[in-house]
Amino acid sequence: MRRIFPKWSTPILESLATVGLLFFLFLVGLELDLNSIRRGGRRAFAIALAGISLTFVIGIGVTSVFRQAVDGADKVGYTQYLVFMGVALSITAFPVLARVLAELKLLTTHVGETAMAAAAFNDVAAWISLALAVALAGNGGDGPERSPLISIWVLLSGVLFVAFMMVAIKPAMKWVDRRCSSEHDTGDEVYISLTLGGVLVAGFATDLIGIHAIFGAFIFGLIIPKGGDFARRLTERIEDFVSGLLLPLYFALSGLKTNVAAIKGGGAWGLLVMVITAACAGKIIGTFAVAMMCMIPARESITLGVLMNTKGLVELIVLNIGKDKKVLNDEAFTILVLMALFTTFLTTPVVMAIYKPARGVAAAVHRHLQSVSGGSSDELRLLACVHGPSNIPSVLTLIRLTRSTNKSSCLKLYVMNLQELTERSSSIIMVQRLRKNGFPLISRLRRDGQLHDQVALAFKEYGQTGRVSVRPATAISALASMHEDICHVAGKKMVAMILLPFHKRWRKINGEDEEESLGHGWRWVNQRVLREAPCSVAVLVDRGYGNEGQKTAAPAATALQNVCVIFFGGPDDREALELGSRMAEHPVVKVAVIRFREKYRMEAEGMVLNPSIWKNRGTSYSPATEEEHDEEALAEFRRRWEGAVEFTEKLGVDIVDQVLAIGTSGEYDLIVVGNGRRPSTMVAALADRAIEHPELGPVGDVLASSGRGIASSVLVVQQHVSEGLPVSKISKAQDDVNGRQEQISSAV
Fold it and tell me: Whole-prediction pTM value?
């Protein structure tokens, strides 16, 4: 090990690790929102206080045993040793807990909400206790640093420092936050540089006072406003450098200080077992008792206790400070480090074993548009997913056109703002900003104009003006499991269709199409939703749909929106036809249906594009039956809209060229197509070509592929294969019952 870290490198390593630690604690302060702590309520405060108090009480006995069993521990003052031991046993690592909850998809559940609020209280109390411990410890020797007067002076100076930061620096940071908001074009580089310099100055000030430098950095991060864009930008600028380079050095330094060989004999290992038992018992029993008194169910109460026992880097920081102050020797330090590692590793599997909310999909549910008759006792339920404000115009326009103008029909719209959760601290800040008392429902627009609130406000305004029930929510999850949240909400809320934005968009910039891509991660989300959704799915390929800048080459004189439905046949195309029928009810929409017929009638055996769809459902495919369903759907459509909708039939010759001609004609704002999962020779001819986006089907891929001069937006519809699955009507009475359980617990 000395070859990797020779003795001469230790001072350099310690300097870099200290800088990394300083900025990490600054990021921890950025993650903590004082407003969220105040909103946590008495229950979260009581839970946090119980966990801390009982652990400190147990820590008295642990301290007595350590001072007798560990060599040299009795030379340290009892009060200093007790405070450090109590902080080490009682601390809850807020950043680690947030990521554990996010990984387990509990962040916006009742348990997650309570745990986060209690952990925030716990974190603040822990840092105050640590400041007290440092003030009492001095340098751990017998010199004047241990004088009570000096400790009191250090504490009073620390209080004055906090007061100065709150009174003088906090208003200045609010001004900086306003200057760096999205409403201003002011560059934030200067303000970020000044802020980072302020972190160093704050750390120097608290170190000069006699409290550790990390305390000043933590307070500086705590006073920065969390609602605006500045905190997010600041975090995104420095977190990779801090977390990717500087913090690993601190971990390496902690590892070099940890000497497992210091644990010798059965007595030392007995101390380790005792410390682990004391830490777990204090947190779990204290939290469980108070949670039960607060009328929280037993299973959730014990889960809260386990979650509150989460340690992490914050624990290592406390222990390293204790060792630097000579309060903890090698043996005590190693025992407590192993305790922190064990309790943290234990959290996730224990919580998964004790508490994992059921994610069953409702059995009785409308699974596609064709099952919604539009009667007065039925309502259409849609789940619209967006990636942010950029999707608002296209999705809102599509929803407006889909809603029936029949006053007796009802539309309930669920909106999910999809946000990726990563290991970055800014993701946790985003989680906090999107939670209102721990719930994912967004009900107001904050004055700082956050992007996610723009989404909620836009859809809320539409709901008020269009007599539509709108329920906005935010799903914050890793891309690998985002589809689970979407499908769970779709099943729980019994929606008929999920609307997804395509992972690519095209915009006209200087007369040329510019492609914007969110990356393959979002593409995989769409693919998984299409594969596992409990209802129909529509993917919107946006080329400026709903924006004022979109102009068709030949706009209709009597209609503001021109919609074309391309029909080959099959369940997906019938669902697209049903969607076109709903759009035709809108007075500003002109719908045209183009049906392709096979030039030569032939059986299309062996040409199922996705046979697993039928086999997995236990459904036998019959070409004659499918054709009969197609004719029935077309006959009903023509009967209903004869004279109001343009209906054209074309022979299936040169399908690719004909489909491209429709897309490049510029006559249509939106082209609606099916996903094409049917054994049709025409669709199979499209599938023979190289497909760039197979999740859109052969027809959708032709229209969505770039570089073809297509100006129209495309909506690709996939009908849920509902044979053998229960389908029932949703009455308003049933909705009233379901409305009492509006929390979307899976939207993390």
Answer: 0.72
